Amino acid sequence: MKKVLVIRYGEIALKGLNRPQFESRLIKNIRRKVFKLGPCKVSCSQSRIYLESEIERYPYDEAAKLISEVFGIVSVSVTQCVPSEYEAISNAAVELARNAYDKKGLTTFKVETKRGNKHFPMQSPEVSMNIGGDILDAIPGITVDVQNPQFTVYIEIRERSYVYLDKIPGQCGMPLGTNGKALLLISGGIDSPVAGWMMARRGVELEALHFATPPYTGEAALEKVKNLCRHLCEYIDRIQLHVVSITDPMVEFAQVCPEEETILHMRRLMMMVSERICKDRGLQSIVTGENIGQVASQTMEAIAVTDNATEMPVFRPLIGMDKNDIIAIARKIGTFETSIQAHEDCCTVFVAKHPATRPHLDRIVASEQKVDMEKMVQYALDHHDIYDIRVEA
Ligand code: ATP
Ligand code: MG
């Protein structure tokens, strides 16, 4: 029997005039994701995407798993695809039910039918009832339980018909590449990779920027950030990782400015450098993992001081979340274990034990006059490497 993947998408179906654009982007992202599994055809019709392959042993289950990671997809099913004729549909349904009964020991079921093809001569409830009867006749020992079945046989009657048992949940969100491009400030911590994932799930393409302070921060810290980007590549394919050094500026701040202000100067410098890289690369916003009240540099006053250093929009998708919820996402997306490995960070190396929690913008800006910010930004841009991180083949 012929297999076809049925792929459902949600929100983008609502996008009116933009819809064809969203669909074609989603199809492109799906094709890219399953490229390595061999040739297949991906097509779109009536708010569904279908994937089928001429290859005899095409790994549909593996393809479904990969596709469930593509942003914009609500669910995926590996289906038996048959002509829209009662007998063919019934045979497929009986075969799937027999499989569930024999191989998984499942004994109660129901049938759910959706009829999109109004030329089909029976109505949905009638199809469900009749095919339920066929299954009962074919498999002694199986029973119907409409309230609480162990498995459901789904039947969708369209131009062709699709019969299946499972819906693998997707990530939802919007297709990557449909909502602009941003620069993710990535440290080595738990929060920033989650922030990046959340924006990417809304369709935002990302480049990443890490600030290092060699030799105070070393290869291990950099390797950790690269690993975090590799994890994100499971969802977004490819990340250009910018690594810039801010060692000299940090040493100068430490010498010239009050110790409790260092972190604010550093964060303002980060914003100024980010803005330059964004403008250079055609990126439209900055994304951080900041979270209100989590640490001294994330009080409302401190965030205001940071924000003031750039004209770019700065998005902080974690701002109102609880740490436990952030950790749950980090675990789900596979970054948590890497994030909690010990590492040295420019924040921990240079920052005071008791930073100012209620900074005044005027005072910080006045204190900034003691150094040459433009020269510091230039120092960072002169110590700039780019790594192309991709998902491993
Ligand atoms: P994270 O878990 O992401 O490290 P955090 O709770 O430790 O966040 P901070 O260290 O104050 O908070 O950093 C706040 C945000 O600033 C980070 O989420 C990240 O976006 C950015 N950031 C901090 N340090 C760096 C760095 N070395 N390079 C790039 N971005 C950084
Ligand atoms: Mg941190």
Q: End-to-end span in angstroms?
A: 31 Å
Number of helical regions: 14
Give the ordered list of helices and strands. Answer: EHEEHEHEHEEEEEHEHEHHEHEHHHHHE
Estimated share of beta-strand residues: 15-25%
Number of domains: 2
> Could you estimate the helical fraction of the residues in percent?
40-55%
Tell me the major beta sheet.
9 strands, mixed
Look up the CATH topology of the largest domain.
Rossmann fold
Give the names of the bound compounds: adenosine-5'-triphosphate, magnesium ion
Structural class: alpha/beta
Strands, total number: 15
Mean pLDDT score, rounded?
A: 94
CATH H level of the largest domain: which superfamily?
Answer: HUPs
Radius of gyration: 27 Å
Task: Jot down its keywords.
393 residues, alpha/beta, VC0802-like, Rossmann fold, 2 domains, 9-stranded mixed β-sheet, 6-stranded mixed β-sheet, 41% helix, 23% strand, binds adenosine-5'-triphosphate, binds magnesium ion
